[in-house]
Amino acid sequence: MTVQSFLSQQKSGPRSQEWVVMEDMYNRKLWHQLTLALIKYVKTPPHHQGHLTEVYKTFLADFDHRISSLALSSIGLMVSEDVPMEQKIEFLESLLKKVSNHQEAKIKIMAKIGSLKIDQGNVEEVQELIKDTGGDGG
User: Residue 83's closest CA among 118, 62, 109, 122?
Assistant: First the structure.
């Protein structure tokens, strides 16, 4: 699906006015304003299962290199809550590669990955993550 077809689809949905505004910002390349609008959108429920993942993959992925790494990490962490559990770490690891130039963004994502790995009982992998962030790993 193209960005334009995705936007057309969203403009006929329940939160159409937000998408009309975001489409205008996208077309005018107002990346900062679009980022702020997208953060607000992602934070504001309701979203049906899989919707935020679709927003990320179809819309945000088109311009994610144009927004700040910190903003991308914040949006990505919110979107990760919508990603199926078996794909969540993979999603976060791909996001981590995109924000590798920003220490705070990296740490936020690594903390979430670490939390998920602890939940899975992968303590050794978490210790490696801690070493990668400059901690001593216990």
Answer: 109
